[in-house]
Specification:
Rossmann fold; globular; alpha+beta
Amino acid sequence: MMLTTLLEISDLHHPEGLHGLSLTVSAGEVLALVGSHGNGKDPLLKLLAGWGSPSRGQIRICGGRPGTPEARAHVGFAGPAWGIAPAHTVGETLSLFAGLWSLPRGRAAEAAALLELTALSDRLAADLSPGEKARLRIARALLHDPLLLVLDEPLADSDLESADIIEAALSALADAGKGILLTTFGYPRALRLATRTCYLERGRLVEADDGHTSGGAAPPGAVPAGSAGGSEAHTGTRSVGLGGNTPVAGPVRPRVDQIAARRDERVMLFSPAEILYAFAQDKSVYLHTSEGDWTASFTLAQLEARLSGHGFFRAHRGYLVNLAHVKEIVPWTRSSFSLRMKDGSEVPLSKHRVAELKELLGW
């Protein structure tokens, strides 16, 4: 009999920041768990991998405890924490791990084909783009045909082609009955892929009211991914109680488009139109405006989710640009460009983002 509940987390506590977390992932479900650093995502991933024990509560992966042979046989992990050897080729990486699982030789080829890596078989991992590396990590996680996938930011920093390939592969896997838990800072395509979206806030779970509908939902006060910034009001959230108790209705919160940022003792509110670009530097995120640079409390991925529908584009892994303020696309080489803003500043344009921007602008 096929298991329907693949992951069950009950009243999970951990001193690094989990306080009564309860959730399940079922066969065929894609659950997006949204949370920034410090809200409990990192200790949760460690516990799912069997690295340490909770101070209270339990996790069951297909009925087994994390880290046991029974659980490992049914779960595949992929994300930056599960790295790949830069000196190995794509083919060597998949063949090596297929051998560790004692799998038939053809299994590596099947996983490579699903993520469209066959043509890259002889390329060193060190020479792959960020999106190609993400595809390789997912292919490696799929080798032993697990029932459950745990994926940390599977789409972030991917070029348009790799993001399309990953999204199609994960959709096909969910249709085939796999359960998928993906963690994200709020990457819009990840939210679109999800059949249910929950939010980690200070180690507790907040689930969107319409979280069981396709495409997920926006966090409290955020602009829904893919929206055009319309006037629909956010309908509120419900907090999931400790130990999976009946959810209690939370307060209705108004949708807020303004972004708060500070400099020294001043706190300013900026509308999306006032932000020329946002950039990450020295573990902080700054808003570049006509009034200078201001420190925001969001990650760049969270800002990308909040500003979706307002004409912002991830030009580089560290830059989110308001295209309405771009004056010129400056070529440096045949594949190297930057964006010159109307105020004279310049923003780097990653070569992995060029094709997406060309398609977007008809360039």
